[in-house]
Each structure stands twice: as C-alpha cells, then as structure tokens.
From TrEMBL:
InterPro entries linked: SDH (IPR005631), SDH_sf (IPR036714), SdhE_FAD_assembly_factor (IPR050531)
Presence of the UniProt keyword GTP-binding in the record: no
The keyword Chaperone belongs to this UniProt entry's keyword annotation: yes
Family indicated by similarity: Belongs to the SdhE FAD assembly factor family.
Pfam name, any one: Sdh5
SUPFAM superfamilies according to UniProt: YgfY-like
Compartments where located: Cytoplasm
Protein name in the entry: FAD assembly factor SdhE
Keyword field: Chaperone, Cytoplasm
GO BP terms, alphabetized: succinate metabolic process
C-alpha cells in the first residue's frame, strides 16, 4: 500500500465532522503536499479524534509550529 493510500485510510475517523473535513482535504490538497507536510499530516492523524477536531475547528490553538500551517490548511477546506 502506498503512503498516500495509507494516509487516506487513516483519515477514516469516528467523528462525522472530522470525516467531512478530512475527506475534503484529501480530495483537494493531499497530492499537493510536500514531503514535510505529509509527515506533519501523518503526525496529526495520530492525534485522538477529539483533540484533532479541537485543532481543526479552532477550539484549541495549535502550539506546534511545524503543524500550524497544515492545521490552517485543514481549517480552510
């Protein structure tokens, strides 16, 4: 399985709202990400659903400077 396919599979979450955001992001942005952004995206997908949703929805600020640009992209889709 390719790395992009693995990331697509990992985007299947337990929260409908998160599924919707991640599926839109995959459809429009995933193949445009560079290697560093792909690593950051994989790291974000390791977060528990509620924590990831808090970041994406803006309920909690992202404190990791490496992840901030990607969180901003997720928020804009």
């Amino acid at each position: 399985m390719s790395e992009l396919n693995r990331l697509r599979w990992r985007c299947r979450r337990g929260l409908l709202e998160l599924d919707l955001v991640l599926s839109r992001f995959i459809e429009h942005e995933l193949e445009r990400l560079d290697e560093e952004e792909l690593k950051s995206f994989a790291e974000l997908l390791g977060y528990p659903d509620n924590d990831l949703w808090d970041l994406v929805s803006g309920r909690r600020a992202c404190t990791d400077a490496r992840l901030k640009p990607l969180v901003s992209k997720l928020q804009s889709v």
